[in-house]
Amino acid sequence: MVIIYWRFNWKRFYEIFLENIRWKIQQLSLTYHSLTFNTHMSKNYAIDCLLEPVFWFVDNFAGYLGKVFVFCVTILTFAVVAIAYWIGLPYWWERNGYMTVFLVIVGNWLLINILFHYYMGVVTSPGHPPHGAMIAEAASICKKCISPKPPRTHHCSVCDKCVLGMDHHCPWLNNCVGYFNARYFFLYMVYMVAGVTFLIVFGIDIGYQVLWVNDSPGTGELIDDPDLIGHPVRLNKSGVFVPVKDSALYDEINFPRQHILPTPLITEAQRISAHTWKRKAVVFMAITCVSVLVALGTLVIMHSKNISCGETSVEAHINKEMKKRNKNFRNPYNYGRRKNWRLFLGLTQNRTFLIHVLFPSRHKPKGTGLTWHSINNALKDWP
């Protein structure tokens, strides 16, 4: 009789299993590095390939959403203007006719600037490098366009084009903000902030009177009170209409005697309070104006800082990273606060702030956007 003893070496099996796992991981790592170890392909390129479905979704649907945003901005702007005329104009006309004329002039000046700069920001091309042309001062080659890229030019994935002096792609304009329309975009925000501030300052009294002082039932509800229909009315000491039902106050032929009763003056604020839709419109105006003031006011401050430093939003991010790496780094396009603003607003060639900024102007910025002066080669009399 033969007895066979069999033992399973779990420790050895575990070591062999781990060794096979390590070998597979090394194979995968070697395959990945062999595919990315060349001048035309990198880890970033591999990540871009993996994220390509996400990029496709954003690129294709951002264009459609941009048209919706433009429509929403247009409707919202005209709704605010219509409510201002519907409610604000009668209110201020009752208070002071001369003040109303002044408000109409200032308000329409702001409105014209808002509409002009928004329209120009939408329809004006930001500028693109010419295809097939020689660019003398090309900074690099665009990997997506496979064409020379001038200084301060960046590729927009939504527009699928390189944009001269690109700041960002604005869905509210359905357009890129670049070299030729950056001024329109910024002045639109400035005038919109000024416009909503104008409405808040001269509409805060309307909101206070309608939503706070006259928050009780309005004159419309009092007039429609069933207890007052078919009866003469008078004011009690609280200033509320009450019916006169006492027969002693009538003569023998059932006609009321002559009473000297005070006639209350119904103000425009009371009329607005009594009108359901006007009250809702006042609330809508308050929420809209405050929201726009906070949102666009923040953007105006941010872009003002960038303009003062002579950089776009894209360059602000790049320059921030450059300063972390090199403390001595200096933006080559920062000519000083005053000159940066003059160049951005196009106040060159004897243009003035009064005519070309305070009023609508279609003047273009100096230059082509293909070549740029820097702090190292700027002309003394430029701009």
From TrEMBL:
The keyword Transmembrane applies. Pfam families: DHHC. This is Palmitoyltransferase. It catalyses: L-cysteinyl-[protein] + hexadecanoyl-CoA = S-hexadecanoyl-L-cysteinyl-[protein] + CoA. Residues 138-204 form the Palmitoyltransferase DHHC domain. The chain crosses the membrane at residues 64-87, 99-120, 185-204, 281-302. It is a multi-pass membrane protein.
